[in-house]
Amino acid sequence: MEKRVQSAFASAGKDELWEGYGSRAKINQLLYNWLDFVSPLRFCMVMLFDSLILFTLSLSFLARFSNAATHGTLHRRSYFYVGQTYAAQGNSSIAFGQIYVEHLTPAKVTQPHPLLIIHGHGMTGTNFLNTPDGRLGWTDYFLCKGYELYLVDQPSRGRSPWQKDIDGAQSAYDTFTIESHFTATQLHNLWPQAALHTQWPGNGSVGDPTFDNVFASTTPSLDSDAETATKMQAAGAKLLDQIGPVILLTHSQSGQHGWLLGDAKPSKIKAIVALEPIGPPFKNAVFPPFAAARDYGLTDIPITYSPAVTSPEDIARVIVSSTSSFTCFQQASPPRKLVNLAHIPVLIVTSESSYHTIYDGCSAQYLKQAGVSVEHINLGDVGIHGNGHMMFMEKNGLQIADEVVEKWISKTLHD
Question: Which is a Pfam family this sequence falls into (predicted)?
Fold first, then answer.
């Protein structure tokens, strides 16, 4: 795995060595103008000068990036905001609904479509930068594979402002929730597969440096998933108009944002990779109370069905399986189709020890029944064991990025 990541750095082209020095064409033109007066051998001299500069810069480049696989991938970082709306406040106005977008561009872009990454509940886009114990994260992996990246903070959290007079109420995760659901599930055993969790870096409990780091990164989020979905769809659609088409990568709560953005802008999304997307259809599972949720199947707000749906009651549903902690609903026959998602290939990835092992299959089947092309990969079934809900932070996170996610993207879009 390490050799595969290192090899991506070795493929860096020599054009990016000229960054910050002006274009080679401009430098050569200046030399031509000068040499016109002093030498009939200008071409040879320019080529020699070009070669000497390139050699010098190459030595500098090699010295700086000989340990690239350890220190990360050469890239340019910028940021911007999109999606704001102005609301009157006194004699002036304020902005709300905007999302922070971090744009990372590798020195050499080799992939035709960028990745747009949306984090889950209580988190921000920092989830995917480096891991909480300081290792390279998924952003470095995909940068070294030549992908341009966009990472957002969902509306009203993190670097996307929350306006107390406009936005809804917020709440934050406590330490028990993070420990028992994400980082130390094997110590709490709240669902049958929780004991299989082995890949978290550290003991996953308060006082462990890795846990303390990830918990410090959590942030209050809107209590209403419907409000979050509405604002993320509005801002995300504007972002897609600006940067699309993209490959969309979602995690957990943002799973429904993937379906809603695909519905709003189907031509702007080439594929969706959903890491343990929020589910299952229509009703919460695993953690009581098992309340009704996601009135439109896998979304809290309207999504386009054919035949059309005017209210959630139009979606006839049946129970196909049920346990004490989980009920799997599908549509009654004949099922309505999610027509705007029909031509977007989808990958759902589920970890071996996560609570999502209980119901992600039901969510995948709901999409398939609605006409969506879905591949569902359980990591344990492909020999990747011990992961939890935060798979991209875990010890074998780069293996998942390489052997599952990027492999599927390449197979689906590039073969």
Answer: Abhydrolase_6
Cα–Cα distance measured from residue 12 to residue 59, given in angstroms and rounded to the nearest whole number: 14
CA distance 332 to 14: 59
Active-site residue identified among 252, 351, 353, 363: 252
d(CA 405, CA 224): 30
Q: Do 136 and 210 belong together in one domain?
A: yes
Domain count, the chain: 2
Do 270 and 134 share a structural domain?
Answer: yes
pLDDT in tens, 199-255: 999 999 999 999 999 999 999 999 999 999 999 999 999 999 999 999 999 999 999
Co-location of 128 and 164 in the same domain: yes
Is the pTM here over 0.90, yes or no?
A: no
Q: For the segment 33-79, what is each residue's pLDDT rounded down to a tens digit?
A: 444 434 444 433 434 444 444 444 444 444 444 445 567 899 999 99
396, 297: one domain: yes
Stretch (H or E) spanning 81: strand 75-82
* Residues linked to residue 93 through DSSP beta bridges, in sequence order: 88
For residue 151, the cross-strand partners are 102, 117
Q: How many residues does the chain have?
A: 415
Distance CA 327, CA 316 (A): 15
Q: Choose among 221, 271, 218: nearest CA to 244.
A: 271
With a CB cutoff of 8 Å and minimum separation 6, the contacts of 109 are 146, 147, 148
Classify residue 31: in a domain, yes or no: yes
Q: Report which residue type is found at 89.
A: Q
Of 369, 142, 106, 81, the residue nearest 273 (C-alpha): 142
Contact (CB, 8 A) for 232 and 260: yes
**231 plus 272 within the same structural domain:** yes
Domain boundary residue, one of 13, 38, 71: 71
Cα(261)–Cα(233) distance, integer angstroms: 6
Instruction: Give the domain CATH number at 300.
Output: 3.40.50.1820
Residue 252 falls in the annotated catalytic set: yes
